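Document type: protein sequence-to-structure record

Subject area: structural biology

Format: plain text, a pair of labelled lines:
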Amino acid sequence: MAQTSLQGKVTDENGEPLLFANVVLKKNGNFVTGTETDLDGNYSIGNIDPGTYEVEVSYLGYPTQRITGVVVYNGKANRLDITMSSEGGIVLEEVVVKEYKVPLIEQDNTSTGGTLTSEQIEKLPTRNVNALAATTAGIASSDEGGALNVKGSRSNATNYYLDGVRVFGRMVPQTEIDQLQVITGGIEAQYGDVTGGIISITTKGPSSRFTGGVEVETSEFLDPYGYNLINGNVSGPLLKNKNGESVLGFRLAGQLLKQRDDDPPAIPVYRVKDEVLQEMEANPITILGGGAAPIGEQYTNEHVNALDYKPYEDRQTVDLTFKLDARLSKA
């Protein structure tokens, strides 16, 4: 299987490599792993999960540099080169924070598709995984959140992966997605005999401190379709070592969605009035124009009600996720 890794080179402001500099990878404030540069200033961190990280680099005589928002893509050798600035001498207890910029060109990218980070997903006006994936070129959706067709393939030819495991059925809450990768071509051998596309989801991990959040969304006062959404999450450490670092952490999230009509019609929905329906059931056939005909043929708009939504289309779904993260090396 293709390995997800982060590699690069650490140099000073003159481009000279820095030997044995410490490179630390963190996620949500938790230490993930670390390494040091070699004789040429190169470093490589392998076997890591895709997602968004912080990278800290420290070296004697230089202030510690922290790069935030480093996006690590699934199945790729991601690259991050770092330039340290000495600022004229030994600096203690100072950290230089920089924001990571996603490169315009991925040097090792051999597949087509796209990747959405959690920050990008938050800005999109949808709560459905399929609708998110449909923003990628080459993917068509039959409707908002409907089945996906990748470059003309059948919808059942699209495979879904959650944290590296193939899944079927419903997906996780949208707020729990750390990274959503869509592969439409050049599919790697690790995915097997896929004839369509790949939707790979990486979920968020536990936090180094207790955090939580609740989100409520409703359209009850704006339209007749009854869209109601509530989701929440709580995360934090369950066990810490003597240095206060998380050894065992958890993340629990849930989402409740209720809709009166999840596919609102463009025109009113007509329904026969109750008293008219009773008359039809009692006398389904009438004499019209000298012959027998269904009684419904003589009804007009006066016999029906115009509804703003389709009746009996109520839908309610519940999604729950629970994640444990154990770092036995920190015990």
